[in-house]
Specification:
alpha/beta; Rossmann fold; 2 domains; 6-stranded parallel beta sheet; transferase; hexosyltransferase activity
């Protein structure tokens, strides 16, 4: 199979879209398929043995770490040269709009991945009143795709309300080796909580849409040490707001594995998550989760089983959930025992196999009959 991936975000930028594209490309390479990746510059020349075709990009003024690919005829040129069986549109917004239009002109089937709630992102970054305009634009893009894959049941219901057709569920995978309880580090725990405090942490981007400032409602809980791993445009403001919180900066590899597994409670504060990979990674690492009762976490967190869900706009609800776990070690241990089993079947191998099935469906070839 030949797959062209047109993505709004890719390396060196690290986020949920990039992660999904990387895992998809690795899966395609491992199973003998061909692919190209079309993404905004700057970026690598290749990934997983596949060429990366770079197009002009522009950084968002309020979020310079996020680069949008600009519309360009180069997309159609690259697709024509490669002649793919299917075009994979990763979180299409601007570059993805060029991709789906070019694919239609070339009569190439398309699978679009809805991954970012752009309307909510814009609202949290100060662009209020743009929801309807953004949703009309997104519906226009996705209406041209042969299939739109969504990461959670809440997101599927949301897109259906806005009239996006041909929806199917495609959840994200998790690296069960990188995120595992065995990475828990007692030396790290002693450094972060020398007094034996309960370590409560957030891991993820530090941006307005993640609402990390809500951690201020947890700083005075007795016996708690708050830690934050990640970076982003909101970091300077958060450091001033939360002077007693340990900021670990951006982490990857072994450091990230150890930090996640060494938490006692993982707290997520964003209320606009279409999936929330960080929640799934915390569960894989054996850490009970406290997350908003909205969006993607509704599919991941089983209230009272592997974590707690709190009312998204209630700091008091957030605090009560965290306090309950902090004050009850036995309950914390019971929930921790049920975290990893709740996501153990969601390997990237299994999830990417599902994706290949969606490719086959839109191409029109019965599953199992399409040769690599």
């Amino acid at each position: 199979m030949k797959v062209a991936i047109v993505t709004e975000s890719f390396l060196p930028r690290v986020n949920g879209v990039t992660n999904s594209v990387c895992r998809t490309a690795e899966h395609l390479a491992a199973h003998g398929h061909e692919a190209i990746i079309i993404s905004p510059a700057p970026g690598p020349a290749e990934y997983a043995g596949f060429p990366v075709r770079l197009v002009p990009g522009i950084a968002l003024p309020m979020y310079p770490q996020f680069v949008l690919g600009l519309p360009t005829p180069k997309v159609e040129e690259y697709l024509r040269e490669f002649a793919p069986d299917v075009v994979h549109l990763a979180s299409p917004i601007v570059l993805g709009a060029s991709g789906v239009a070019a694919a239609r002109r070339l009569r190439i089937p398309t699978v679009a991945i809805f991954q970012t709630d752009v309307a909510a992102f814009a609202r949290r970054h100060g662009f209020r009143g743009a929801d309807q305009v953004i949703w009309r634009w997104l519906r226009r893009i996705h209406a041209q795709a042969d299939r739109t894959l969504v990461p959670s049941t809440a997101t599927m219901e949301q897109l259906a309300r806005y009239g996006v057709p041909r929806l199917a569920l495609w959840r994200r995978g998790v690296d069960l080796e990188r995120f595992h309880p065995r990475h828990r580090s007692e030396s790290l725990r002693r450094r972060l909580a020398p007094g034996g405090e309960v370590i409560v942490g957030y891991v993820g981007r530090l941006a307005p849409d993640k609402r990390v400032h809500l951690l201020e409602h947890l700083v005075d809980i007795p016996g708690v040490r708050l830690v934050v791993a990640g970076d982003g445009p909101a970091e300077p403001k958060l450091r001033r707001l939360l002077p007693t919180v340990e900021f670990l900066g951006f982490q990857s590899g072994r450091a990230l594995s150890e930090t996640m597994a060494s938490l006692d409670v993982f707290v997520h504060t964003g209320a606009d998550e279409t999936f929330c990979q960080a929640v799934q990674e915390a569960l894989a690492a054996g850490v009970p989760v406290v997350a908003p009762a909205s969006g993607g976490p509704l599919d991941l967190v089983r209230h009272g089983s592997n974590g707690f869900l709190y009312a998204p706009d209630s700091p008091r609800s957030l605090r009560l959930c965290v306090e309950r776990l902090v004050r009850n070690p036995r309950l914390r241990a019971e929930l921790a025992a049920r975290t990893r089993p709740s996501v153990q079947a969601r390997t990237w191998e299994a999830v990417c196999d599902e994706l290949l099935g969606h490719y086959q469906d839109v191409i029109g070839v019965p599953p199992g009959r399409l040769a690599a």
